[in-house]
Amino acid sequence: MATVGRLRSSNSELDFPNIEDYLPIGSTINDPAGELRLRDLIDISPTLTEAAGAIVDDSFTRCFKSIPSEPWNWNVYLFPLWCLGVLVRYLILFPARVIVLTIGWMIFLSCFIPVHLLLKANDALRRKLERLLVELLCCFFVASWTGVVKYHGPRPSIRPKQVYVANHTSMIDFIILQQMTAFAVIMQKHPGWVGLLQSTILESVGCIWFNRTEAKDREIVAKKLRDHVLGADNNPLLIFPEGTCVNNHYTVMFKKGAFELGCTDCPVAIKYNKIFVDAFWNSRKQSFTMHLLQLMTSWAVVCDVWYLEPQTLNPGETGIEFAERVRDIISVRAGLKKVPWDGYLKYSRPSPKHRESKQQSFAESVLRRLEEK
Length: 373
Ligand SMILES: CCCCCCCCCCCCCCCC(=O)SCCNC(=O)CCNC(=O)[C@H](O)C(C)(C)COP(=O)(O)OP(=O)(O)OC[C@H]1O[C@@H](n2cnc3c(N)ncnc32)[C@H](O)[C@@H]1OP(=O)(O)O
Ligand SMILES: O=P(O)(O)OC[C@H](O)CO
Known about the structure:
Layout: H1 38-41, H2 45-56, H3 59-62, H4 78-118, H5 123-143, E1 147-152, E2 162-166, H6 172-178, E3 184-188, H7 192-204, E4 208-210, H8 215-230, E5 237-239, E6 250-251, E7 264-273, H9 288-296, E8 301-307, H10 319-334, E9 337-338, H11 352-372
Parallel strand pairs: 1-8, 2-5, 2-7, 3-4, 3-5, 6-9
Antiparallel strand pairs: 7-8
Helix pairs in contact: 4-5
The chain binds Palmitoyl-CoA (PKZ) and SN-glycerol-3-phosphate.
């Protein structure tokens, strides 16, 4: 058996040994087979298996794919019925819904602007009225897609040191929850009309927006969260700890931020029924405006919302374990499959930490085999 050569002095600029440094003196990695050589010891099959697994069963990508429903208009009498439905949805329902939404905006703006400008001296009353107006506007939005929302469990109330956490499928989750309670929501900043609403109306109900790909922004948000939960009169905080929209078949990793605030976490499970339309917002394929138009031209948006039993950190439990326990509760209630991925990976290359841990485990397996031989 070939003896493993003593580690030669490192030749890399970074002072890490190269694989060649483990070879017997005078041999190279390309030496022909015969005697047992280093390359015989490097079994890459686990790595290959993992790579092939990622291609065959990529559970990360599957979380963010719209899953089309079965077509039902495939025969001679169903097809005309479907055509009739298209005409009704686009020519009757859609214009009626545009009118409803326009009326909603008119009522909202004609009340919100005076309340915001004229009640500066009476902060408590102004905040209360603004809260009610935002809830009202959200009711108009829900009506504009004929939302059929069933709420289960006790309605959220304003209590200090409480955080609501929900699974996330579309920005309409925000509207559906907001029509019952004006939450202060942690949100990604958007461009266009959504961004304008975020920095005006939504900021006035305590919503906190940031850019999730900026570490500095995340740091500031983490501090704002801690301050917010201490304020007794602040609107209840709502966080979508997945940090991105998932297709309502899976839940991805819950970021620990919401679970390290020393608060009670109130889980909210949201499950959409895809009978008329898929409510998943695939932001890579569609703008939010197009998403809303799609909902407004469907028959209805049907969904269930469960306000579940509040949870507190168990003795000895870490933030990550707490996050995982709450994710379990939500996933079970909404019938969603848990996958371990970090949703932010949608927007970034794998972190150096993740890459290095993979390199480390591969290097360790090689060294283990070298020592066994
Ligand atoms: C008026 C009506 C009009 C209506 C009509 C218009 C609609 C108007 C639009 C509204 C819009 C609403 C929709 C809002 C919905 C969003 O916008 S969702 C997107 C934004 N929200 C979020 O991202 C919330 C989730 N994120 C968090 O909770 C983050 O923790 C915070 C709070 C941002 C803080 O971030 P942070 O300080 O970086 O800390 P954290 O993320 O916990 O991570 C630290 C480290 O721990 C690791 N880590 C975290 N958790 C875990 C874990 N569980 N296991 C292992 N490692 C972990 C992280 O990976 C990270 O590692 P490194 O990357 O440093 O290596
Ligand atoms: O699905 P994403 O990652 O584009 O996230 C959408 C919003 O920013 C969160 O609601």
